[in-house]
Amino acid sequence: MNKYIAFFLSVLLAVVGNVKAQSMTISDYLQQQQPGLDKARLQLQDIEPLIKHYQQSSLVEVTELGRSVEHRPIYMLRLGQGKKRVLAWSQMHGDEHTATAAIFDLLKYATAPEQAAWLKHWQSEITLYLIPMLNPDGAARNTRVNAQGIDINRDALALQSPEGQLLMATATKLKPHYGFNLHDQNRFHAAGDAPNPATISLLAPAYNEAREINASRKAAMQLIALVKPWLDQQIPQHVGRYNDTWSPRSFGDTFARMGISTVLVEAGGHRADDHRQVARRLNFQLYVQWLDAIASGSYQQASLDDYEAIPFNRSGGMKDLILQNLQLRVEQTEATLDLAVNFHTESDRYARIHELGDLSVHSAYHQFDVSGLAFRPGKAYRLEKVLQLDTAAHLKLLAAGYTHFSGEAKLLQSSSSLPVLLNPLRPPQQTPQLRQGATFLLVNAEGEVVQALLNGQLLELATGKVRNPLGT
Ligand SMILES: [Zn+2]
Q1: How far is CA 224 from the centre of its chain?
Q2: Which DSSP symbol is given to 93?
Q3: Which fold has domain 318-466?
Q4: Residue 384 and residue 225: Cα distance in Å, rounded?
Q5: What is the whole-number distance in angstroms between the Cα of residue 431 and the centre of ligand 1?
Q6: So what's the pLDDT on residue 428?
Q7: What is the pLDDT of residues 394-408, one digit of tens each?
Q8: 21-314: which CATH number, 2.60.120.260, 3.20.20.370, 3.40.50.2300, 3.40.630.10?
């Protein structure tokens, strides 16, 4: 091969293989992400093989910081040897694992041969310390708290939990300049007034009650301001600012008081994204940009106006489902109202009636106008002999008013493609009751069943189509 062509090809390959993280398309990202972490929850056994893998890498130093209450190891991984020290920790709440996956995306990206030049660029400036699962006991139980029942993020002053003690001892010893406090937030936060979930919320936590801005908090605000325009492009109107009320027991606020420029990142919900993979990708891309900006100091040019322009989260602004203009008659009182349904979490499979009335100020992952249709309670179909239930038979039973089945499970042989409710935990009520099951019929003025809500999923009887199947 002509040596010029060979040279050209090698440059081209280097460029193609070296897609900058912040300009990655979703398919670029999916090709390079750490496989195996797109799950409803992550526990220590999900990340330990990866930690073992990085123990073999000459680029990463792995240490066991200490042990949890139940003696699970808590690891820290270090990259780089620069003067600017950055400490990031995830999953101090055991059921918040999105950033843990993003940390392993970052490790995979930073140690890939095609990123050698990028790694070299920042690791002479930065030493990066990563604690990817501070609360492995909570992760094992899928709880926010640790095995003592303590919320580690309210233990920064009392330091009663071994996990909190380890985090504080690490920060005291390493004296990081920058801290990244990585969490998942309630999926029902809306991004300000937008009708969308806050998929990413950011905050430079306050270090005192007056929420003053000193040099270290200003740096944290500028790191956030720097990425705001990029986030607005990636997820327009899905970016929020977390509540900035001073919370002295929290690590973010305490570290801010210790002079660490601390950024809180909250990964939130997104439509059709049960495992928060959108927030995971954005987290990873944010880490890369922050490393670049800290290495170069470029964030110091960012305007605090961009930080202030991020709207605060609107708590409870999102619901899973809102049915608008449902007619409801209770005794002699008739009303046309909105009805909201929530699942407790993305992986929860039990839909509950959440709120009734004028819900026009709220938004929803799914919203349907059911004007002209009235609530009617569903009946239980009592299984007394074997029932072969295909979709057509199921639709006929729904049209006849049966929303669910009761009796022995073995008597129901279902091939129905619709949601089948057998012996529901809380049987549907005669009128909608808060926190009870979201299963009922919707009838037209002639009293015909036109639609049915089956465990929070709205079915059109004429087409047999479920308009918001679980996971969408
Ligand atoms: Zn949290």
Answers
A1: 19
A2: S
A3: Urease, subunit C; domain 1 (2.30.40)
A4: 65
A5: 36
A6: 83
A7: 999 999 999 999 999
A8: 3.40.630.10
